[in-house]
Sequence to fold (450 residues):
Amino acid sequence: MRKAKLLLFVILSCCILPLHAQLKYFAGVHGDMSIPAFQNGEKVFGFGGGGNIEGGVYLGNLSLGLLGGVSFSNDKGELVYEMTEWKAGLEAGYDFGKEIIPFFPEWLAVRPNLAVLADFYKADGYRSKSKKTIGKDEVSQGFSPVIEAGLLVDFPNLLSYKAFDFIPAVGYYHTFRMENEGMVSSGRVSLGMRVLFSPSKLGSFNMDGGTLNVFATTRSKMFTPNGDGEDDIVVFDVSSDADEHEGVNSWELRVYDPGQKIFFIDKGKGKLPEDYTWKGISQNGSIVDGGAIYQYVWYVKANDGADGFIPGIIQTGVMVQEDDGVLHFSLSSIQFGPNSAGYEGLTDEEIQRNKDLFDTVAQILKKYANYNVTIEGHANNVSGTEREHLKELLPLSSARAQTVKKELIARGIEAERLNAVGRGSEKMVTNKKDEAWKNRRVEFILTEKE
Fold:
């Protein structure tokens, strides 16, 4: 009964919990130390070891994959004194990290895991006690269906390189082997590593790449597609040294939103476009958010096979909107230090972007001199709990709103016009994990003076 409950718990954890849309890939390797079977005493065999390889996909926190491995035992048991097993099958797991268990640190997650396997074995030993008495041993081999239920501890967010995350894991598996005489169960301790590949991170380049030199710039510092006739489009100047490589074969432009999702793609054959123009509209017709940072990557391939890319950023400016007679605008590109209302840990370039953005906001507020301004700090609730909202996000968002207020006062905006408040996570605009950046924002609400 206890085994049935364990299997049911793992199945529910792995298969029924909600999925997320962001697709990632993983591969892993694990070393095992086997613990002897404790049922069907005549088939008990001793300690051993082995290894497994795995590969598959992540849908949010859910992992689905293929598992294969080999294990052996050579400590003397009652009848079987040496056994080798080869197994292959399907596995599923679900990661419970900080976003689900709020008191967990960012580097810790628990993963229930379930595998259904075909087990092929070769055993050296005795078929019965009587044959053991006369010393007649023999080799037997066969096949058994196997279910493995495991509980692992993962250590994410410790080591990463570009689009790859390296996740150490340690845990325990319990194996349920179906044989003619009934179920035989045994355990094993596992230690290994998963490597997670996130295609969406490919946009996060920080240097030129490839064997072909590619150059790209934009002509506007701020991009504000609000129809006012100023900076409504982005114009790219793009070039390469493809003439030294038999000319351009193909090109591709990708634009990623602040959450690293592909927002826009365009591609072509032959010569690079001159004065390439983009209006800030995605493939599905949505427009860029104001006050955000979008990344772009130009890829170019030459006729001789050489290729290269160059990344860059597009910063969208302030776009004042009116809803129900209320003027407002929102900025998600103001950057702060981790869990801070200051700029600790930011690069000089990031700090300069903040300054440019504050300059722009100050200029706009001077145009609306007859309006008072409420500055609202907003945050993303990772755990979804009231505790995080009250204890962490409210004070943090309030402090960040005060920082913005001070920056605007330093740029000539009258202090009596400004009111800074923290909203924490009470006005989150999305629950999607890959759009969490939309919740981390500063909103400016303009109300006309009486």
